[in-house]
Inverse folding.
């Protein structure tokens, strides 16, 4: 029987998923949404704030992003505003690969969902 390297799961109160999974030096975040505001710029800012907080909880940051997947409810109308908020937030020296698509959302008030993976911070020896 082969062994599996350690898997750390954080934010496990939701019965459906973990908010953070760390495995083999990679931090995976679940898809993040926000419905406390009703416009794309506000939702995107709030989602990216949550991304920062979750990455910090995992001991890493947006400077270590590897991938980003973004789902928009209305790509035709919201892509430009999403990109403006994204570009202001992103570390310009450490851009991840990214995909953005239009998708129906789980609830009508959700305009954007973002999921990222990042390299875990390494300990200096």
């Amino acid at each position: 029987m082969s062994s599996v390297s350690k898997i750390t799961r954080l934010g496990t109160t939701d019965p459906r998923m973990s908010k953070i999974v760390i495995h083999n030096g990679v931090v995976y975040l679940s898809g993040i949404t926000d419905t406390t505001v009703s416009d794309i710029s506000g939702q995107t800012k709030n989602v990216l704030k949550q991304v920062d907080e979750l990455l910090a909880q995992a001991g890493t940051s947006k400077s270590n992003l590897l991938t980003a997947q973004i789902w928009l409810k209305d790509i035709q109308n919201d892509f430009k505003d999403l990109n403006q908020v994204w570009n202001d937030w992103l570390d310009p020296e450490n851009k991840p690969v990214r995909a953005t698509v239009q998708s129906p959302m789980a609830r009508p008030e959700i305009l954007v969902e973002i999921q990222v993976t990042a390299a875990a911070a390494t300990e200096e020896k």
